[in-house]
Amino acid sequence: MVHRITLFGVRYEGILEVTESRTFFQTLCSGVGPAKGLGMGLLSIAPA
């Protein structure tokens, strides 16, 4: 039996304004979305 999944990646480029620093830090550490266990959901950030 073959199980298939479909994953979609998104690339966002721009300036992010953080209004809730605690929530942002938790999200940065834990990742975003249900596919983070498969290497998706990672965030790369840099100072503007």
From TrEMBL:
It comes from the Bacteria. InterPro entries: CRISPR-assoc_prot_Cse3. SUPFAM superfamilies: CRISPR-associated protein. This is Type I-E CRISPR-associated protein Cas6/Cse3/CasE. It comes from Anaerobaca lacustris.
